[in-house]
Amino acid sequence: MCHHIISLSDQEQLVEKLEIFKFQGRDKNGHRVLRIVGKFLSARFLSVDALKNYLEENIFPRLKKKPFSVLYLHTQVQKNENFPGISTLRSIYDVIPIDARDNLQAIYFVHPSLQAKLFLATFGRLHFGSRLYGKLRYIKRIDYLWDHIRRNEVKIPEFVCDHDEDLEGHQILDCGLESDHPRVCGAPFMDSPVTMYSTRCI
């Protein structure tokens, strides 16, 4: 958990700068998409209060009126490095307004690890309920994401594209499926507070 090295307001500004939560595009059903970058949900730098405050002020008010979907990028989330923990996730879930929960249509979970799948299949059902679990859609490759979300409307961070290319060379992890979607190379991603994006995954 965060040791409050920086103030609460500075943490909220960091959430905004990193674009951890951002509305981008729509899915194939016309629902707005809330993109979440899991890699930056680091408990080392962000407290539960900072995340909750940011969500309550900037995100939740925009989720109450119409159906929406969540695009969660799990790429490079490691349990011992930047996983916020079940207690943090549960605390955030508890403050989500009922209207917003009802309006949530699907959660597109990109690059799920085996550990994440096992965790959600067991503790996820227990802590978040089978209704939310039933909305999970595991997406192992970015190319498959476009079957659900409108292409060119969502920005994918460079490090996510890099990981996706690594999977492309490991057929055993990808069931031997290859995509025929064209890609255009973009600028390299730098692991800094300012996220950069690639056009390779659009």
From TrEMBL:
Domain of life according to the entry: Eukaryota
Residue runs in coiled coils: none
InterPro entries per UniProt: CRAL-TRIO_dom, CRAL-TRIO_dom_sf
Sequence ranges assigned to domain CRAL-TRIO in this UniProt record: 14-165
Pfam hit, one: CRAL_TRIO_2
Name under which the protein is recorded: CRAL-TRIO domain-containing protein
Organism: Salix koriyanagi
